[in-house]
Amino acid sequence: MFKNDDYSGLEKAAADFARDLHIVSGLHVGIHDLRQTHFVSAGDNVCNICKYCKKRSALFENRCICSDKDFLNLAASKQKSMVYLCHLGLVEAIIPIVDGDTTVGVIFLGQARTVDKSSAFDEMFLRLQQIDPMNFSEENKEEIRISYDKTVSITAKKLDSLISLSEFIAQSIYVNRWLNIQSVTTEQNFRHYMRDGIDIIHIPLSSFSVEKIADELNISYSQLNRLSREYLGLPLKQHVLKTKISAAARLLSEHPDMSVGDVAASVGIENIHYFSRIFSERMGVSCTEYRKRS
Fold this sequence. Notes:
Layout: H1 12-25, E1 28-33, E2 39-42, H2 49-56, H3 58-78, E3 82-85, E4 91-99, E5 102-112, H4 121-131, H5 141-150, H6 156-175, H7 186-197, H8 210-216, H9 221-232, H10 236-254, H11 260-266, H12 272-283, H13 287-293
Helix pairs in contact: 2-3, 2-5, 8-9
């Protein structure tokens, strides 16, 4: 749908830096503006405990989004690099990109374990059970442990060095205008947000808000729906619902062992009766009949 090589103001040099720093450190590296509507990143496909948990639980992923935004806003307001523990207990860092008195973006380094700061596995597992006991239980504890063991472990000294290097790059990003917010159009912001900024399928429908997205993109509700009709062919809420039902149809066909309730929950629709009604309206048959025909 959208071109992967459209950096929307981020020069290739910034993308190369993110890639190279990831190769050296093993960390997830991201460079983006404060609204996180467009960015370059490296390490997205690394298999670690964050990747495992986000894939398994929408509740966990939503907690990650809130945690990242809180620390991003704090670092932006202080205009100082900061190291912190995420809600799961992993070490992460945010390096602001400053233009005079304004923070225009950040470099993000994340998802690492350190001996002196990070939570041990048992503590992380307890936190996961508190967040989503249905998806994080004793039954899959060993899988979680394996993903924990795959998570990058670095020393505090190495992290400090990576932050120092990133602070130097942050100045280059500003001086060379790699991150030029003024050059980014509303349309580019929208395309990048829909491609990289939101997980349509797994976000709970009950918490999905077109108004909230319009606010994040700093545009009006009507303008957001105009862009959605132009690029997606539907008003945004209808596009989200269509995407969820399409994903649910695939799950019904490919996973006969999943209950209708589990399928509904997997695509972020908590009310099974609402899900069944919408599925029948859009697909022309009930969930059970659709599964029989597949």
